[in-house]
Design a protein that fits this description.
The structure is a homodimer. Chain A has about 350 residues and is α+β, with helices and mostly antiparallel strands. Chain A contains eight helices and 14 strands. In chain A, the strands form three sheets. In chain A, strands 7, 8, 9, 10, 11, 12, 13 and 14 form an eight-stranded mixed sheet that branches. The first copy, chain A, has a four-stranded mixed sheet with strand order 3-6-4-5. A two-stranded antiparallel ribbon of chain A has the order 1-2. In chain A, helix 2 packs parallel to helix 3 and helix 2 runs parallel beside helix 6. The radius of gyration of chain A is 21 Å and the shape is globular. The two termini of chain A are about 30 Å apart. Chains A and B meet through helix 1, strand 2, strand 3, strand 4 and strand 5 of A and helix 1, strand 2, strand 3, strand 4 and strand 5 of B.
């Protein structure tokens, strides 16, 4: 079930071996040893060494047909891109640098042809973009497409940025605009045919960009007191950061960087603040900064806005201050697979 | 979607958070830092450091309802045990020592009660047995039970034992007896009710024991020239070792350590050599030894027989020598998910 290093001969190869050989042939392999990978695809396991003075980040993510994507609506190359981007975002969320990944793939036999090729094209485009090498994985046959991606990253010893270290008085920031991915998902759900995957309104939903440079910079410069990525929506993820740190937060509706709608039919325009609060899949970074370091945070980083949206409080509540100045508890309405199946 | 370090408060927790908190509460946590785990469950990712002079082994394995187990036939604690044992076996197959693991779990909401508790009991019993700590994971809801386990191990720099280094003239060994797991699977398939999971004939199928001490010893003493584990059956895995090494092999049917049937009805007794050649899931080790080191290989190791079953050849064919002395090509009839769905 492991990936063979050399394409197997006709005699020895199982159907699984042949699929694995194609996956491997598509792999981006430049600078294997420079990326810390000393044995990749082809044995029982991969061998990995971080740079001296660095430690290893480990994370994994499901990406499942029906739950996370719809094969009839989502282009295969976007599924390939996003399964890696989601997992890599957890490395960004630690302030680390992704190095290699394992991919576990289950597909129906009807998806082993062109679908698989396009999927691999997207996966390998993402791998090149994030500097993250295919190191191995597992494959099997299933009626539905199932993916699990495990990413290995590295971070300088002791520099990883955690969720559990926010302190009362710290200012809460988010990168980018929130709700854009959810808006793209709604456009795709409402469309009866497969949409043009180059539509800019779909980019963040189909081809998310983990905020790697930003995470690295915050960690290297020790600018953030706590950091996580926004994968399930601000109203679900902010309570997690607060619970881990034993604190609360106050956020301001009018400060939240929400979607800017351009030329879209009126009936497709949901409330942008609702989208920003509860929409998942943005893969922006949520981080806290001590007041004394505020002046070191620019308004944008690499073209991505960094916006203060509130502050950390001692009282363990999450409070939303509306545009009218009214306080209300923030309802937790982001993504929960056991509520939104 | 990540595992919270502290059980979330009622206010902040999603249903997913509550399941994650239960998974975490069940975790075996002794000697976290001694095992190299510097940040476990509870953040965006885990942090891992191998001992100085060691490198990191990375591997992952699917374990899926319908494909790899049947919830109506397999006890939940055996599913928990085996999902980890399978992945840990790949670490044994490198001559390494397992340290920590990530588990990705998808379950129907009907399986979040007693089923999940029993599953976690088996998983954590295996974790303790293998000295392998839960470091994180991902969870979601699905109509079927899906598991993916990613194991991190370590091995002294340059000591990992590969598949690709067998040489002509080396003697081919296997540990244990082959076909026992397949025999157990057949008993379970033929039974109309759930069988007694303590039946010794089912042990190897339900609760396999990766050959960790043997793998470590072979690597530390540099006794094996190549090593892999038998997960898909000798007739599928031996060709993989040979393809990776660019060699062939000759094996002797009468030397293969096969199942010894005790008090079983006659109609349930398949041909033991067929079982040994094509049965999967044994998780025994297949290794090669240079002639000059043969005398250092004992007849058994820790109670597990080590049996020479043939030799590596320059001719790139896999030849089976029957009990009658006749030569035949070994048909590749082990586990292939794209042939045996």
């Amino acid at each position: 079930m492991k990936m063979p290093r050399k394409p197997p001969t006709k005699r020895s190869g199982t159907a699984e071996d042949e699929i694995l050989a194609r996956i491997h042939a598509s792999a981006f392999r430049s600078g294997i040893h420079k990326r810390g990978l000393y044995l990749g695809v082809g044995d029982d396991a991969a061998l990995w060494r971080p740079k001296p003075g660095f430690e290893t980040i480990l994370t994994c993510d499901w990406f499942l047909e029906g739950t996370h994507f719809l094969p009839e609506k989502h282009p295969p190359d976007a599924i390939g891109w996003k399964c890696l981007a989601r997992a890599v975002s957890d490395v960004a969320a630690m302030g680390g640098d992704p190095r290699c990944f394992l991919v576990s793939l289950a597909v129906p036999s009807t998806r082993t042809g062109r679908w698989l090729d396009e999927f691999l094209t997207g996966l390998q485009r993402a791998a090149r973009r994030f500097g993250c090498l295919l190191a191995g994985g597992d494959t099997t046959q299933r009626p539905q497409i199932l993916l699990n991606v495990m990413v290995v990253g590295e971070v300088r010893l002791g520099r990883a940025l955690l969720r559990s270290t926010a302190r009362p008085g710290d200012i809460l920031f988010t990168s980018g605009r929130l709700g854009e991915a959810e808006f793209g998902l709604r456009l795709i759900r409402q469309s009866h045919k497969r949409m043009n995957s180059r539509d800019p309104a779909l980019k963040k939903h189909l081809y998310p960009e983990p905020r790697l440079s930003l995470g690295l910079w915050l960690a290297e410069k020790r600018l953030a007191s706590a950091l996580m990525d926004l994968s399930d929506g601000l109203s679900t993820d902010l309570p997690r950061l607060c619970a881990a740190s034993g604190v609360g937060a106050r956020i301001y509706a009018e400060k939240i960087p929400a979607v800017r709608f351009s030329h879209r039919p009126k009936n497709l325009m949901p409330n942008p603040v609702e989208l920003a609060l509860h929409g998942g899949d943005d893969y922006e970074l949520l981080f806290t900064v001590q007041q004394s370091k505020l002046k070191e945070i620019p308004q944008s980083f690499g073209g991505i806005p960094l916006t203060p949206i509130g502050e950390i409080t001692q009282a363990r509540k999450i409070v939303l201050i509306g545009k009218d100045g009214k306080l209300s508890p923030l309802p937790n309405r982001g993504w929960d697979p056991f509520r939104n199946p």
